[in-house]
Write a structure and sequence with these properties.
Elements: E1 6-8, H1 16-25, H2 27-30, E2 32-37, H3 38-44, E3 57-61, H4 82-85, H5 110-117, H6 126-131
Antiparallel strand pairs: 1-3, 2-3
Length: 141
């Protein structure tokens, strides 16, 4: 599957290192900024050897590159580039005073924040517990 990021599932996972090496060797010609596989990929996602939902190789193209021949393309869901992963977040609640925080946060912090606001235990989520994900800062939690 490829578009503004290439997600590659290999039929033979023993070829992962060879595929990643080929892509890295030809990165300039293929407009590749980064190739993730092996240990680097396992640090961010589940191990592809144990979870078939996890791709074996991820290719992040040079910013602005789109891998598609479709003439229908008018928008994108995003990939792993800085512009796709670093976005503004607005929280609105009549009980909060207006202010701007410039604290970097992750979208994974939204779920525990919502659960806490609803009076539910965020630690009921495996991901929150396993990754020790905090709620968003500055909301009086």
């Amino acid at each position: 599957m490829d578009d503004d990021v290439a997600l590659i599932w290999l039929p033979d996972q023993s070829q992962t290192a060879a595929v990643a090496s080929y892509l890295n060797t030809n990165a300039k010609a293929l407009f590749i900024a980064e190739v993730m596989s092996g240990d680097e990929l396992r640090l961010k996602f589940n191990d592809p050897a144990n979870d078939n939902r996890t791709r074996d190789v991820i290719v992040q193209p040079i910013y602005g590159t789109i891998y598609t021949t479709s003439g229908m393309k008018v928008s994108e869901h995003g990939g792993f580039s800085f512009g796709d992963t670093n976005v503004g977040l607005v929280v609105s609640n009549p009980h909060l005073r207006a202010r701007v925080l410039k604290t970097p946060v992750a979208t994974s912090q939204v779920a525990p924040t919502i659960l806490r606001a609803l009076g539910l235990d965020p630690d009921a989520l495996d991901a929150v517990r396993n990754e020790e994900t905090p709620a968003l800062p500055g909301l009086g939690n």
